[in-house]
Amino acid sequence: MKQNSDLILASASPRRAELLSQIGIRYTVIVCDIDENCLDDESPVQHVSRLAREKAAAGREMSAALLPVLGADTIVLLDGEILGKPVDQDQAQQMLRRLSGRTHQVLSAVSVLDPGGSIHEDLNASAVTFADIPSAFIQSYCRSAEPMDKAGAYAVQGMTARYITRLDGSYSGVMGLPLFETGRLLQAAGVIE
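RE: above sequence
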């Protein structure tokens, strides 16, 4: 456990860690392995919110420190379907071909479990529009490691950025941790003023 940590970050995402550092939050990372499958009767909003909550709860269970725990999850939605992390290069290519030339939604949920057991939650919804992405780029990109641990098989801050024509919402939310909402939750949990 890092000394002087403000909270536990229950996430293996280097992007979430980078974003917390960007706003001056000191944290200790605990990687939680939870089942991320969608429940049968669950809407996309319910799904992403539940995963953020479960990550925070799992982080609390794994931590001996009495610090707030932050859990977050991000999903990509196209035509009401959740595009998760691709399992292989072929699936990554299929996802990017579907996203090419279209607008999709990115939902990022954040949950902060405070030391008293209260949960503070918020959700950010953003819309991302891609230009037509050339097939040669998709094939080359999917041979890199970049799309493999990303919802929808892309990183807004990565190589696909050159094909994003519009982003309505939160850039940090599309990266995986909406900073405005996160800041409000950290205030509510007493982490920051």
